[in-house]
Amino acid sequence: MWGTVRKWFDRLFAEEETVVLLLLVVGTVLLLFFVGHVLVPVISSVVLAFMMQGVTARLARLGMPNWASISIAYLLFLSLFFGVLILLLPMVWQQLVNLIQELPVLLRKLQQALLVLPERSEYITETQIRSWMGMANNELAGLGQRAVSFSLAQLPNVLGLMINIVLIPILVFFFLKDKQQILGWLGEFLPHRRPLLTTIWLEMNDQVANYVRGKAVEIVIVGVVSYISFAIIDLDYAALLALSVGLSVVIPYIGAMVVTVPVLLVGYLQWGGGSEFITLFIVYSVIQGLDGNVLVPLLFSEAVNLHPVAIIVAVLVFGGLWGVWGVFFAIPLATLIKAVLSAWPKPHAELSQEEAS
Description:
This is AI-2E family transporter. The chain is an all-alpha fold. It has helices at about 1-10, 15-35, 40-60, 65-100, 105-115, 115-120, 125-140, 145-155, 155-175, 180-185, 195-230, 240-250, 255-270, 275-300, 310-330, 330-345, 345-355. The relative contact order is 0.09.
């Protein structure tokens, strides 16, 4: 038995490139697991530079010099980066503060709406509803104290965030400017003959590039359209809810269902079940329908060929490991795993070829 296992192992890892690939995968996973939080600005900068690489490539195809295409792409990135920091985040933060301050009023409105349910359903009693609302009020009473404790505990993270805000634009510039030098330096540590790694790189470069850039465009379009729609119908916390709707597209299938609850709940507490709430429901349904049936096929169109079950499992696993970043990179990481498994040498295939010859 051990002889068979050893023979299989020797056949599987006979090529130097296979061993290097295994070491790369294991080393990357360990690096992200143990020091991933330290490398957040570097990883963020790599992703942002990767996204802007599409702009530089298109400008280069138009005949523009390399330095000019990089300069335009970097100026576009700076405009978007500081536009979000200066315009979007203060508005969202103010609406979040307003929401927290108005939570007691919203809870009272919710209690009044829920107290009607026992009259319509024999499975829900007034005692149950009052018990639920009592627990909610107790949680709300301790929210202020927890918020103060959380704020004091997050002071070091605020300092780190400020450092990252300075570091990320600098790193993005150098990743755009010195891309070839960095890739060349990394290539020196790999075998000179590397068809397996090249196959994986080409598949990953195409699929992940399409996915990341498409997902960024989808977030912007869905978020902007949601904000304009919510602002037109005068929905409270329009910017905060629109940002939530935009970011929800990062989590396939699950995100849209989760974000629907706060959107409709805020609308119901603001207007009740009248015509305004029905308008909100129709508008939100149209946005989700256009996103799923028009925008997603247009942006991705077979960019990532993964089964829905694989996508959901990837979101759960990587989200559990690395939080928000894990959720965002769940599909690229799943694509990487699929590419590695597809390109990995198959011992059974080699045996079949030997028997056929």
